[in-house]
Amino acid sequence: MITQVLGYPRIGAKRELKKACEAYWAGNITEDELFEVGQTIKKSNWEIQQQQAINWIPSNDFSFYDQVLDLSLTVGAIPKRYQVLIDNRVSKTDLYFAMARGYQKNGHDIIAMEMTKWLDTNYHYIVPEFTKNQEFHLFSSKIIDEFLEAKEQGIITKPVLIGPVTYLWLGKEKEEGFNRIDLLKKLLPVYLNILTVLQEAGAKNIQFDEPILGLDITKKEKAALQETYACFAAHFPQLNIILTTYFEGLEDNLELAKQLPVNVLHVDLVRAPKQLDAILNDFPSDKKLSLGVVDGRNIWKNDFSKSLNFISTAKAKVGAENIIIAPSCSLLHVPFDLDQEDDEQTLPQELKNWLAFAKQKVQEVATLAKLAAENPSEEIIQAFEKNKIAIESRKTSTKIHQPAVKNRVLAITNADAERENPFAIRQQKQEKALHLPLFPTTTIGSFPQTPEVRRLRFQFKKENISKEVYENQLKVDISDAIKWQEEIGLDVLVHGEFERNDMVEYFGEQLNGFAFTKYGWVQSYGSRGVKPPIIFGDVSRPKPMTVAWTALAQSFTKKEVKGMLTGPITILQWSFVRDDQPRKTTAEQIALAIRDEVEDLEKAGINIIQIDEPAIREGLPLRKNDWQTYLDWAVNAFKLSAAVAKDETQIHTHMCYSEFNEIIESIAAMDADVITIETSRSQMELLEVFSDFKYPNEIGPGVYDIHSPRVPSEKEMEILIDKAVALLSPRQLWVNPDCGLKTRKWEETKAALLAMVNAAKKARKKYTTVEA
Asked: Is residue 707 flagged as an active site residue?
C-alpha cells in the first residue's frame, strides 16, 4: 500500500528554528545563516520519512513563521501598508517577518497582520487581508524552491498547498461590499502558474489542504470548490491531485468531496471514525482513498488492531491498490521525537511506552502498511504483538484511576457552578471593596522572561543552586516588579510569574495525573513553542500551587495584586489529553483543582483572581450542531472553578485571538466579573460584538499588541480607548495589554505600559463627566 505524510514539524529536534529566527531578529545572524538552519531541518525531516520508505513525502510544509503567511507572500496578497518596504527594497525575508510581527525602524512604523487560531488547534496563523480589488501574482517562489531543494537531495516530494478556497475562507475582507470567495477567479491563475512550474520541475503529486470540507459551508463555497478542482483537472491531467480534509468528518459535504475531480481523497478517521462506511458506499472507482488512521493531534501510540480494522474494511470495498495509509493530519501538532525523552524521572518508561511523537508516527504509518500487506514479515508481526501489549498495559495501569477523584466529580451539583449573587450586586460590592478608578489599568499577568530569569530557573531545576538561593532571587524579582508597577501608576498589580515556565505546564507539574517531557515542544506561532503536559490519569491538587508567591507579592503593596490561574478548559486544550474518558470529565476534574486554589487564594487575602481561558473558543467543535454540547460543559467547568469565590472577590478571565461573535452568549454565561481580550490588531473590531450583545459585565479590550516588538504610542492607545468608549460604557472598561508580556523585552514593556497608563489617565479626565 502507498503511504504518505501530510506535513512534519518544522521547529527542529531541539527548537533550532526558534533559536535561529530569534537570532536573526536580534541581528545576530545573517539571512544566509537563517536559511542554512532551515535547510538543515528540511533535509533531516525528509530523511526521516525516506528511511521509513514513505511514498509521498511532503515539501513546502516547512515555514519560518506560518504556512498561511507563506501562501499570502507566495500569491502576493501583501497589504498596502507594506508597500513602502517593497519600494525601499527591503528583503522578502524582512517583509515576511514584518507582516507577521510588525515593523518599527528606519522611520517606519507598520502594524502586524492579525493572528488567530488554526481551526480548533492551538496553532496561530497570520490572517490574510483582502480588498475588493485585490490582485494576486506570483511573488515568492518558496514552494518551487523547496521542491527543487529536495530534488537535489534525491527525493521527489509532494508539494503541499493550502487549497485556494480554504485560503480565501481563512482571510478577512478589509472593506465592505464584496465576498472574499469571489476573489477565486483572480487567485486561480496564480495557482495554475505554480502548478505549471512544479510540473515542469518534475513534480508528480500535489497535496491541496481543504479542511473547509469539514465545516458547515455555503453554496458559494461549495461552488468554488467545484470550480477550483475542475480547473486543476482540466489544466493538469498528468498531476496526481491529493485533496486532504482533517479535524472533522465530511458529513453533508461527502457527496461533493466524492464528485470533485481529484485523484486522491484523504479523510480523518481519528476525529471522525464513523464516516468510513458512508465514504466507502459508492466510492468513485477513479479515486484512491487516503485513510488518516494515525493521530496527528495527540501523542498516544496507535492501536494497530483498531487501525487495521479500518484498513481491512476499506480494502474489501475499494481494493488494496486504491488505499493510502497516512496520519490524520499534518504532524505539526505533535512533538518531534520520543527517542529524545531519556529521563525516567520526567517521563517514566511505563508511560513512555504508551506514546508516539512525530518520528514514531511516521514509523507507525510504515508499519501499518506492511501489516496490511498479504504476507507480513515475522519482524512486522512481532511489532504488532508488541503494540498490543503496550495498548493493553495502558488500559490496566493502576496509575490512571483514582476513586476519590471520580467520586468528587460524581458529587458535583448545579449549585456548585453558581456565584452567590448576580453580577449587578457583585459589582457594587466590589466597587466598595476595591476602590478602583475609572478605566482601571492592569496587565494580563506575566512579565518578561529574561535570560536571567530562565537561567535561574534552569539552574534550580538542574540542582546547581539551592532552593534558598532560587527563592531569594525570585523574591527580589517580585519585589522589584511590584515597586515598578506602583511607580508608573498601574492600578491592579501582578507578581510577574517569574517562577513559571508555561501557563499550563506550571500547573500540570503540581497536579496529580500529569506527566512531562524534556523536548516535547510544539509550535504555537512563529518562534513561540509550547511543551504541552500529558494528562494520563485522574487529576487532583495535592496542595496549593500559587498562594505563597501571590501572597508574598501582596505583602509588598497596599494595591491589589491579582492571583493568576489558568482555567480548566485551557489546561485541557493545551495539554495532550487522555483519550480513554470524555474530555468533559477531565475538564471537571481540573476545574475542581482550580476551585480549591481559588478558595485558598481568597483565604490568603487575595481579592482579585484571574482564571485565564484563552482556549475556550479554540475547543469549539468545527460543526455548529456540536457547539452547544461543548459550550455547556466548557462554561460550566469555568464556573465550577470560580463559583466558590465570595461576592467581593473579583473574578477575571482572559481570552486572546478568538472570534467571539457566535459564542458571545456563552462568554456572558461564564459570568466573569471582568474579561480581558485581544483587540489591538483588529483595532477594536472584536469589541463590536460585546457592544451589539450589550455585554453587562466589565471588559478590558487590549490596547497593546504584545505579539509584536513594536511599541505603540500613547496617542495610538488613546484612539483605541476612544473606540472602546464608543461601543461600551466607561464604567465597564479596563485598560490593559492584549496578552501576557512573557515574550517581550523589558525595554519594550516599560515603554508601552507607561504609555498605556498615561492614556488611561487622559481617558479618565476626558470621560469622567460623561460617566457621571
From this structure: yes
